[in-house]
# Entry
Amino acid sequence: MELIGSTLTATYARPKTSHFLPAISTMASSYRNTQPALAMNPSANLWRTNSYFKSSSTVPTPSSLPRENLDLVRAKTMFYPSNRTALTTRYTPDDWYKSNQNNYRESESSRKSAERLRRDTMRLMQDREQMTRRTQESTSKNIGERLNDIVFWRSELTHETDNMVTEIAALTEVKRRLERALAETEGPLQVSQECLYHREKRMSIDLVHDDVEKDLIKEVEVIKSCQERMRRYLDRAIAQLSNRAAQHELERDMSDKVTAQRIDDRCHHLRNTSDGIGYYRGIERLDPLSLPDSWSKFTDDNILHSQSERTSSHKLRDEIEILLNTTSNEMWNQFNNVNVAFTNRVSETADAKNSLQTHLAKTLQEIFQTEMLIESLKKALRDKECPLKVAQTRLEERTRRPNIELCRDNPHHLVSEVREIEDTIHKLQERLMEAENTLQNLVKTKVTLEHDLSIKANSLFLDQEKCMSMRKCFPSMPRLVGYT
# Structure
């Protein structure tokens, strides 16, 4: 293929069939031949390629070949300028003229097609431009209407949020009072439980289920009962403060609407000349999460839910006020009963402690005498260690006598000496064990008495010093109802 023409009107020409045709000019009419064109075989020129000009070693004469083989001979004829006049002409002037005419017609047809395409394209561009402008204006109008809807629902959300914040503040204050009252009960409960815990440290007979313990248990039950009721109402208040969750839903909805308003406001003011616009491929395939009806219903449901929660919150606040007054009276009455029982029990424990101290003094004297006996027995056992070693060493040395000298002679009776000493040691050890057992029993008795005394002392300390000192104060009525 060959590119001909200027850069503005360049077209692609067909494959060349000859290197000797004159150039086609726009004045082709001056070459018109008025003679009729000779009938030619349309396919006669199709096979003539560059092989037409190739040389051949043997060139047959036309007279010796049939007519139909004449062209094949020409195809093998070597072309030289000297035999140019002997060759037949490849094209006629009429062929050349027709070729020009075909080119003109094709050019005119191409120009008409291009002109028609240009007109259709311009009309399409104008129609699409108008349609795009109308669509953009419609979209801007829809965004403006959407902004109005967002502003309306945002104002409704703001009003309901303010009411909800007020109610939440009131319920939170009552809940805080209930929490403080519940926290105030922890002190008396802890005192009662600590008294029970300390009194559980009493051992042996001192661990009795007396009136003090009964009243302490009852006090714990009363306080726990009050706490349980408080916790139930506190749980209800916390659950009711799920209206805080409703508030969060309102605030989140309002926040979403603020964001949507900001985005839609920016979109509403976007123009073709605005900054920040760009291509986002595939964004048109995004599926929205809601429809206009579900969008407005979502906000309306949030508002209705918030109003229902506010009504329940007000009713709950009245019930909590009644509860606080009831529980404070119950705990005060039981507190006074326990203190009276403690006073009586302290007096009984002090009398028992004095009797135990007398018995402990006698036991300590007997323990001292038994310990002296044990020391005497141990000294006697130590005194038998050296004789036993001497006797056993003599026997061991005499076993080394060789052959017949290893005789059971009189000195061999060292065996009886060893046995005698061992028997003596055994009897002393038995006496020592008996003395140690006796001492152990005495010590155990002493420990028991001391332990019992420590229990009595500990009981007096717990009841008189620990418990009564802790029970000197009790939360006042205003504190028990949640006021500081």
The longest helix spans residues 93-199. Strands lie at 3-4, 11-12.
